[in-house]
Amino acid sequence: MRQWRERGIVTFERCVDEADIKALLADVEYLVENRSDFKFEIEFRGRRLNISDLEGSPFSDTGVKFNCIENISLAARRLSLSRVVCRFLRHVFQDNPVVIQSLTFWRGSEQPAHLDYPYVTVQTKLPHLAASWIPLEDVHPDAGPLAYYPGSHRAGVIAPFDWGEGRLVFDGRSLKSPQDFADYIQERIEEKNLKKEVFLPRKGDVLIWHGNVLHEGTKVNDPARTRRSYVTHYTSLTAYPREHMMPKALQKGHFITLNQGYAFDHPWEAESRRLPSWHTRPVC
Question: Degrees (nearest 5) of the Cα angle 97, 114, 143?
């Protein structure tokens, strides 16, 4: 917790179940091979589209993110709710952690330095935000590894960005663009002389970061290399919006709970087809 306060990040080694990693990778490959059977959103170079509408392989480009695969993959939910992550975040939130969303990468993202809180705004209490990053393979320095700026979350280091009329988050009423925000962040990095650290984990490690810590995807120096990884954003149970749960979810079991963390089914995903791990991995 001292490291969390001072640096905004903590790491744990070899603490994630490799069977769940293997199952998630198999789920992703199954999804890609059977993409016409699924209504599943991916992000491709900043544009959101259904996976069946993407020309070519989603594995071939650095700009592809698989959005919220935990809605259809039990292996993903189990990774999100791994024991070490849930135990640590219960101390951070002083409450049970809940999965907001996930992002799955096959290659390095090369995403510029950014903060999560202007974009991840599901939670009813904006500061109740944290994330985990799990490598699904050993990460090579030339594969575009994750980097972060320790201590950038602390008060006074980076003042909140004004998206227009005093707004703190990016939404349909924002007067500024993500590029404006990226430019602002780069100016603060140079002004404060912030130093980044590159994360080169082994499969099964995990990094947890504060929702206000700067992080980025570094340059992919070897396009032939993958950087398969799984990111989860979390909030507290008290800050999780009830409209994102099925009606009477806590009574009817439209969720899984593992290690005192939660992942809820969503009303808009009620009829979604699910990936193989849902039938082969234990729920808890």
Answer: 95
